[in-house]
Amino acid sequence: QRGKLLLPGFVDTHIHYPQTEMIGAFGEQLLEWLTTYTFPVESQFADEAYAKEIAEFFIHQLVSNGTTTALVFCTLHPESVEALFTEALRLNMRLIAGKVMMDRHTPDYLSEDAKQSYRQTRALIQRWHGVERLGYAITPRFAPTSSPAQLHGAGALAAQYPDVWVQSHVAERLDEIAWVRELFPKARSYLSVYDDFGLMRERAVYAHCIYLDAADRALLRQRRTAAAISPSSNLFLGSGFFDYAAANAAGFAYGLASDIGGGTSLSPFRTMLAAY
Questions:
Q1: CA distance linking residue 155 with residue 141, whole number of Å
Q2: What pLDDT, on a 0 to 100 scale, did the predictor assign at position 33?
Q3: In this predicted model, which residue has the larger pLDDT, 141 or 109?
Q4: Measured distance CA(192)–CA(184) in Å, rounded
Q5: 261 pLDDT exceeds 90?
Q6: Are 165 and 96 in contact (CB under 8 A)?
Q7: C-alpha 159, offset from chain centre
Q8: In the prediction, which pLDDT does 35 show?
Q9: Of 112, 119, 159, 213, whose CB count within 10 A is highest?
């Protein structure tokens, strides 16, 4: 028909499905935004019925925007993963997702024990990874909300299951980087924290990657680790700009991401426009 295009499905390399209902929650920068908006919303996903409702809506919105593959953060509740994978399986989507792992610097209602997190993640890998077109991603939220014990467990799982994905956040804001430096004083950089725990390898994807140096960029290439670039989220939260020229010169892989709900639209076209 006239006025219509047939295209391959789009890939969203970083997105938080539990934040679907809080798109556009404005007025804060990253760390305050998490506490004010994100954590209270994510606490609701312990409820199986609520998780199912949001998962079905989220998947429908992805497909409606032409996105047929996504790398997704769930919450720390296994129920959130079950709900998302169940709906993705029903529609035969190519979806990669994982339960968020976080055991410190979060509200009591949204924290877990490192051993429990390891056991739950391993069980979810065994249940879902490789089922039809689904894949599992080991998902520490970001270094400040994981203890060394939890990151060690995540690295052990990454070694035990080399064909699963790894995803997290890195170097999104300068105050975040300063916090990581206090928490991991022996690490060369924020990015190298993950490398120290065996979490940088092929099939690892780190969101944002704004404030990297030449050694970080070389490490991404060396480890065959990719960056997920979230231009609308970076603008919305005032985080900064990804350096495309430096990334191209270093030769590491990167892809675009909506980063809902820091990002403001599920449309890959709006994400591309923000990148431009």
A1: 14
A2: 53
A3: 141
A4: 10
A5: no
A6: yes
A7: 19
A8: 61
A9: 112
Residues shown for the chain: 276
Q: Look at residues 61, 23, 42, 40 and name the one whose alpha carbon lies nearest to residue 267.
A: 61
Q: What pLDDT does residue 26 have? A: 60
**Token pair recorded at residue 187:** 């690490």
Q: Can you read off the two tokens belonging to residue 136? A: 């599992």
What are the CA-CA distances from residue 29 to residues 33, 73, 101, 212 (Å)?
Answer: 6, 20, 22, 20
The residues facing 15 across adjacent strands are 72
Structure tokens at 213: 């140096």
Q: Using 50, 70 and 90 to split pLDDT, how confident is the model at 135?
A: very high
**Average confidence score pLDDT of the chain:** 92
- Burial of 153-186, coded b for 16+ CB within 10 Å and e otherwise, reads bbbebbeebeebbbbbbbbbbeebbebbeebbee
Q: Token pair 């509200």 is at which residue?
A: 107
Q: Which of 46, 121, 101, 104 is CA-nearest to residue 77? A: 46
Mean pLDDT of 169-198: 97
pLDDT at 110: 81
End-to-end CA distance of the chain: 29
